[in-house]
Amino acid sequence: MTTHTSSSIGRYASKFVDLTAEELTTFTAAFKEMKVKKRQFLVQPNFVAKHRYFILKGALRAYVVGEEGQDHTIQLAIEDWWISDYNSYMFQQPASMFVMAVEDSLLLQISFEDEQQLKAASYKFETFFRILAERSVAFMQRRVITNLTQTAEQRYDVFVEKYPAMVNRFPQYVIASYLGMTTEFLSRIRNHKLKG
Amino acid sequence: MTTHTSSSIGRYASKFVDLTAEELTTFTAAFKEMKVKKRQFLVQPNFVAKHRYFILKGALRAYVVGEEGQDHTIQLAIEDWWISDYNSYMFQQPASMFVMAVEDSLLLQISFEDEQQLKAASYKFETFFRILAERSVAFMQRRVITNLTQTAEQRYDVFVEKYPAMVNRFPQYVIASYLGMTTEFLSRIRNHKLKG
DNA sequence: AAAAAATGTTGAACCAGTTCAACATTTCAG
DNA sequence: CTGAAATGTTGAACTGGTTCAACATTTTTT
């Protein structure tokens, strides 16, 4: 089992940096496997997000609750994605988000301190986390552009096209809130498509 | 002049990593000072963004042009901020954005290749760029949250409160498009405030 | 298998923000 | 200093998306 775990995050890291067998061991040792049940919370507002999570199996979402109680989904994550409240995790300040499992999930968790140690221990680990952050920046910039330039229906179409694997694993109201529209409106968009 | 330049970007980098005199020299040498006139373009769609820019003096914006010709401002930048089309710069792919000077500006430019060399040359430089990217992630996550949860008027209020230095340096239609609303609507919000 | 909880659908009224058009004001190049 | 370009304002009609409420369907729990 440790073998399986190691190879997952190890394989992932090896996509970005070239690690020796020893480095791979040190790297994977910083992660702890963890099971969570559907609807379990990993991060809650006002508490500091002490970990970030890599998803081996399952599906999670990060969301904030608005003043009138509406959910706003900030991030969706399935296998091979990372999730946390990054504003909280990176600066170790109180979170504004919930991170919740949408399915029973199997995760690898790394603590802020252990991540700092990895970065301090090896140039290559520092590079790995730099690449991770840069990719997030590019991803989020694309999201900002989409939100600013597309209509609700276009945003949904782009989402389905880019993340087909996610469409069937999150309830409709979660996808709607991720795309910045109401459940009802997404329902209408979908049913509209069936007809023409 | 080199002295002034060096100390600006050097002082900036020193906020995040502890550099020796020699490292400072290597670091600042990778940057090239550059003047741009108001309305000059630094990045254009379909061309690869070969540089990122640190602003010594002046103001710039990054924007995409929508299908119906409307501007959508993705980023604003003044002194001590960085700007580029990061999706293009980081992956060296064709840009989707314009980056344009809004005032006559004085910049420090670094090329993608030189940045790669800095990162490869020193652990500390790698750390510096990692921190830069992480801060961007946190910043953009806050922007996504604001866009998803606030009304147009609230977004404007938050902007004025957080970036008062920017309010008077960008034309109203630029700020409006950054905040995801029309010029006309921002005009109404502002005039509405004068009365009550 | 039944009850409860969560999720999805539909209609109709509504509204935050847009659009268009005309005009006012400010900035800037020559 | 002047004219043109850029920027900002206002009104009135309009619309993409929301809200609310009631009901339908699916999933989960016991």
Question: What is the topology?
Answer:
2 copies of one chain form a homodimer.
Chain A: H1 2-14, H2 21-29, E1 32-36, E2 41-43, E3 51-57, E4 60-65, E5 71-77, E6 82-83, H3 86-91, E7 98-101, E8 105-111, H4 112-121, H5 123-149, H6 152-162, H7 164-167, H8 172-178, H9 183-195
Antiparallel strand pairs in A: 1-8, 2-7, 3-6, 3-8, 4-5, 4-7
Chain B binds a DNA duplex (30 and 30 nucleotides) through residues 151-152, 171-173, 181-188, 190-191.
Tell me what you see in this structure:
Two copies of one chain form a homodimer. Chain A is α+β, with helices and mostly antiparallel strands. Chain A has a single domain, classed as Jelly Rolls. In chain A, 51% of the residues lie in helices and 21% in strands. Chain A has nine helices and eight strands. The first copy, chain A, has helices spanning 2-14, 21-29, 86-91, 112-121, 123-149, 152-162, 164-167, 172-178, 183-195; strands at 32-36, 41-43, 51-57, 60-65, 71-77, 82-83, 98-101, 105-111. In chain A, the strands form two sheets. In chain A, strands 1-8-3-6 form a four-stranded antiparallel sheet. The first copy, chain A, is globular, with a radius of gyration of 18 Å. Chain A binds chain B through residues 64, 66-67, 72, 74, 86-87, 90-91, 96, 119, 123, 126-127, 129-130, 133-138, 140-145, 147-149, 177, 180, and chain B through 64, 66-67, 72, 74, 86-87, 90-91, 96, 119, 123, 126-127, 129-130, 133-138, 140-145, 147-149, 177, 180. Chain B binds a DNA duplex (30 and 30 nucleotides) through residues 151-152, 171-173, 181-188, 190-191.
